[in-house]
Amino acid sequence: MKIPSTKLLVIGFFGLLVTMQAIAQIEEQRFLQTIDVQVLNSESVVIGKILTLRRNVGSVDAVIAVDETLKGTPQKAQRLHVADQYSPVEIRSSEIEQLFKKNKAARLLVSGNMFTILDRESLAVPTANRKTIREPEEVIRYAREVIQSHPGVNQIQTVAVSGLIVPVDAQLEKWAIEAIISRGPDINHYYDGVRALQFFKSDTNISLLRTLLDDPTSSLEGRNGVLVRIYYVRGPAYNVLKKWNVPVAETVLTEEIPKSQVR
User: Fold this and answer.
1) Which domains does the chain have, with CATH numbers?
2) Which of 18, 33, 139, 146 is buried most deeply by CB count within 10 Å?
3) Short-list 172, 113, 116, 170, CA closest to 139
């Protein structure tokens, strides 16, 4: 989620995480789905080529000749149904038709009814570790490693952070902690880190968020002629701790600046 101005930072202090989660759900289709989510949310993942293709009203059905099964029961062929409307990876059924006409030897990574065309010049596959893979063999290797590191997983919880839809797993927790500690000039990066960390309640993470409750980082905003100091780092941490039912003292999130102190 992008927060382009200081004014918008105020949104979250009284229910920031609820607001951010709601917006993330509404806008989730605008985020790029990582290959991690694609393969983890499927019972079958294969590498193969289009054997046959049939056009229906509003969709196409393809039969994939399987070269390698990365997940699920090994098979020689798999059916793929692609609707005309945009899929979560923002491709249309027309793209698979064009592929079949131009290059029948092109390989696809097929996860359920989702697919990634591997043999294409514009290959750019986003991953949960914030990298973009542009080589087919690297995509296959990465997908294989993700599947092996999540044995038995066919459905995983996801969250939209930093422009990507990623799995809620150990890698996300590590990223969230690093995002909070490093913070940096982009406050949205910090907010995404806190929102991601809410899925990982632990003594260590509780201690991390407690350290932010007296963070001095702030900005000034005029409200109805009154100057207000906003402690925008404290709010998200405070709300996660409250969500976790962790006892915390009331934290100063905003305070008015007396006119005598305004120069």
Assistant:
1) 7-28+163-261 (no CATH), 36-149 (2.40.50)
2) 146
3) 116
Q: Are 180 and 208 in contact (CB under 8 A)?
A: yes
* φ, ψ dihedrals at 262, nearest 5°: -85, 125
Please state, for a pLDDT cut of 90, what percent of the chain lies above it: 56
Return the amino acid letter for 144: R
**pLDDT over 50 at 52, yes or no:** yes
pTM exceeds 0.85 for this model: no
Please provide the size of the chain in residues: 263
Find where tokens 């009284």 sit: 14
How far is residue 9's CA from residue 11's CA, in Å, rounded to a whole number?
A: 5
Q: And the tokens for 152? A: 């038995």
Residue 14, amino acid:
F
User: pLDDT at residue 23 above 60?
Assistant: no
Helix or strand run (H / E) with residue 80: strand 77-83
Distance in angstroms (rounded) separating the CA atoms of residues 159 and 168: 7
